[in-house]
């Protein structure tokens, strides 16, 4: 699993149109189940994505082609982790014992 931290690098480039392009671009990954959650930070300095892509290469490829990155408006940091605890509502994301 991957925690993706989006940081806006050029806030003036973050327009409503670019934000809509970014969301449309990511929508297929939500439909496929690769992205689980996403949203903006408060204050709005970027956003967070939670991913269950199988490999870091898949995540890197996805992010490299994100409209925010392509426009030079954002960069990402990626933390890979293995969940070991979850609330009952999310227990299906834990590896089988």
Can you walk me through this structure?
It is a single chain. By secondary structure, the protein is α+β, with helices and mostly antiparallel strands. It contains 3 helices and 4 strands. The protein has helices at residues 16-31, 56-64, 67-70, and strands spanning 2-8, 35-40, 46-51, 74-80. A 4-stranded antiparallel sheet has the order 2-3-1-4. A hairpin with a 5-residue loop joins strand 2 (35-40) and strand 3 (46-51). 15% of the residues are buried. The mean pLDDT is 94.
- Which radius of gyration do the C-alpha atoms yield? 14 Å
Overall average pLDDT? 94
What helical percentage do the residues reach? 25-40%
Envelope shape: elongated
Structural class: alpha+beta
The end-to-end span amounts to 17 Å
Largest sheet: 4 strands, antiparallel
Pattern of helices and strands: EHEEHHE
SS summary, helix count: 3
In total, the number of strands is 4
Low confidence ranges: none
Proportion in β-strands? 25-35%
Layout of SSEs?
Layout lengths: L1 E7 L7 H16 L3 E6 L5 E6 L4 H9 L2 H4 L3 E7 L17
Antiparallel strand pairs: 1-3, 1-4, 2-3
Short description:
With 97 residues, this protein is α+β, with helices and mostly antiparallel strands. It has three helices and four strands; from the N terminus they run βαββααβ. 15% of the residues are buried.
